[in-house]
Design brief:
Distance between the termini of chain A: 33 Å
Radius of gyration of chain A: 22 Å
Largest sheet of chain A: 5 strands, mixed
Number of helices of chain A: 13
Structural class of chain A: alpha/beta
Largest interface: A-B, 79 and 79 residues
Oligomer: homodimer
Number of strands of chain A: 15
Chain lengths: 418, 418
């Protein structure tokens, strides 16, 4: 008695979230006795609520395979947070109705902390309402802030991009410092957790003595100490690179740059810490500067994705389906680090009750004592995650990514207003 | 009677200027009967003026070969413009003295328009002063604005980076547009010429129907028309990408964003057009936005350099030496497009008298009628330049670039104050 599966992508997309989709769909296609078809939500959970479902059986095996190397969310994502079971009762009940109407027995939700929470609530409610749905959360977030799992698919590729970009730009500044730019500032993502900023520290290694000053969200910004550190680096190297997290903030919680707008989750929409920091350096120290804001480029850069990350993103998608088939519910596949050197990992699992609404920050011992760098422990953690180059195919000088047909499933229920 | 050669890197560096250095040095090493040694200027022409010369014979063949895939200026560059022969007489005469003292018979100057001018003047002066130096300009500029040559080494790789980044970010925005970001703005280099901005147009092709709105420096900014175009794109696609050149400006010449600082050449130091454009869109149309400023990342991104560009950068370095050996003077090797399909090119030459102080802008027929896109003619021109991926070697998840020893040559002359 095969049931259909529902799959949706949630929140900010990554360069490898489609590799997880690929893992889900390819694995489901191998188990037609258990999973008849994978229906995807167009634009995430909104697709489920509005019965805007995509029939993935209309996609060729080749196109599904191409998801492995296509960045972004192939079915569309959304920022739409379901609240608690009382406040969003109407929406949760609608989900169960949709699942009933489309014979959906599996709910695969691919996202970060907020979607883990939604996934957990769906599993609770489906029990209560007597319509059994196995809800499995597929982890994804460039922020790397989910608990229990060693890392989050999406992070390793951003880390690789930021590490490489910081190294490349540092070589550039080093060339220019005699008469021109002495300080280069790059702003990276990471609203609360400094994992991505930490990756900038990988620009330096035994072969590359590059001065990198990192501003973490975990360390309240101390302007005087920061400027003294930049000054000392420039005195020694004649140049310096600064990696500033979008979440870097003053001791009172005020972000270095806040645009004043907020996203659908009520989070402040950030951007612009880099010019603020650059101008601070110019005013206090008089150094010429350049600054970059990587923004979406960092999380979309499939052209330089981490091989480890791609493999892990696929693996959690595959594991989600395999766990579901074995009867598991209300869990999330995790990445378990089995050994450090050589790096070995396997897929484990965590109950959603322990994942939902927990954020994982950089441990203090991953940040150097002065607060501006990474420690060897952090390096040991990060380096395996950026290993391997799994280049996409190129055509005519450009990466050839897939755009799916995304054929709609016929609607069966009355309209639902969001 | 072999003479030494002098080689220096000038102005903003690129991801392939070292490939030209590699071409110069490897070719010189094959002609020891004519070129005894290549002495490099530490930090460009300043290294010559201050007698801060680098003995490249101390570098292994392997390290010189590694320059081919190492971004930035391996010997250091500078922004230091020599004025006309009268105003900078002292500097020009010092150069000739340095050349005499170090038995330098060849002057290879690797840069853009300003350095072509310097190179031209050195060749004029050396004749006047009766100390024969063959001055050959090796073209380099991401701005692609040198005349005569079909393209400038450094440009193809930036074009590839911007084309790929715009495509990747566009896939990202497309995923998010239902509830979140509808407009993504990326700011790119190009102070006067829109060649780099044009490359953003390559994000779209027959397989990728991506809405891209480009703001060229060649087209005075018309806010009303721009906003109407963005609005129409979003109405049709639900999202839109905007590529804005740092040199985009209002009809009165005022840049969309000017930081108020000026570089050593007196050019306004730009940056920050992206947030200005993004905010304009938000205020007028209410769309959620994200913006990125690629800055140095674009010109340092050796990890995704164009194979064509790397080959051409090497070739102009090699040709410079071969032309010098054949007795040429006061010229610049050029790239000549021999055929379009299949793309074939060869190295030609141009007299420096026709190169110095001439800037090449985008022809009007490369820009679409509405001023916000590229034409098929532009596409035909650009596409061959981004062909091929010549990846650097990776070690431990990171590109392995070379840092040279840069051993100094013993000084022979009294100190010279800049």
């Amino acid at each position: 008695m095969a049931k259909n599966a529902f799959y949706a992508q949630s929140g900010g997309v990554t360069s490898v979230i489609n590799a997880s989709a690929c893992g889900v769909i390819e694995t489901a296609r191998k188990h037609k006795d258990k999973i008849a078809n994978v229906l995807a939500g167009r634009n995430g959970i909104i697709g489920a609520l509005t019965e805007d479902l995509i029939d993935t059986s209309k996609e060729s095996d080749a196109d599904i395979a191409a998801l492995r190397y296509t960045p972004s969310g192939a079915f569309g994502s959304c920022r739409f947070k379901l609240k608690d079971l009382e406040k969003s009762k109407r929406e949760y009940e609608r989900l169960i109705e949709i699942f009933k109407a489309h014979d959906i027995g599996y709910f695969f939700y691919n996202g970060g902390g907020d979607s883990a929470d939604t996934c957990y609530k769906v599993s609770q409610l489906s029990e209560k309402m007597g319509y059994p749905v196995q809800a499995i959360h597929v982890p994804k977030t460039v922020d790397n802030d989910l608990p229990i799992t060693d890392t989050c698919p999406g992070f390793g590729s951003v880390a690789k991009y930021i590490a490489i970009s910081t190294r490349e730009a540092s070589y550039d500044v080093r060339s220019m410092s005699k008469t021109s730019t002495k300080v280069f500032v790059i702003e990276v993502m990471g609203r609360h957790a400094g994992w991505i900023a930490a990756a900038g520290g990988l620009a330096a290694d035994e072969e590359n003595d590059i001065p990198v000053v990192i501003l973490f969200p975990e360390i309240p910004f101390d302007q005087e100490k920061f400027l003294a550190t930049v000054k000392a680096k420039v005195a020694k190297y004649d140049y310096c690179s600064v990696v500033v997290s979008e979440g870097a903030h003053y001791p009172d919680g005020k972000f270095l740059a806040e645009q004043g707008t907020r996203d659908a989750f009520g989070h402040a929409q950030l951007g612009g810490a880099a010019p603020v920091v650059a101008d601070m350096v110019r005013q206090a120290l008089g150094f010429k500067f350049h600054w970059a804001v990587a923004d979406y480029l960092q999380r979309a850069a499939r052209h330089i994705a981490s091989g480890t990350d791609v493999a892990q993103a696929y693996a959690v998608g595959q594991a989600a389906v395999e766990l579901a088939i074995k009867g598991h519910n209300s869990i999330m596949p995790t990445i378990v680090r089995k050994s450090q050197n050589p790096y070995k990992w396997e897929v484990g699992e965590a109950p959603l009750s322990k994942v939902a609404n927990v954020e994982k920050f950089m441990p203090r011992d991953f940040i150097s004592e002065d607060g501006f760098g990474i420690t060897q422990a952090c390096r040991d953690y990060l380096v395996p995650l950026i290993q391997g180059e799994e280049y996409p195919p190129f055509h005519n000088g450009m990466p050839r990514y897939v755009t799916l047909k995304n054929a709609p499933v016929a609607k069966k229920l009355p309209e639902f207003k969001l």
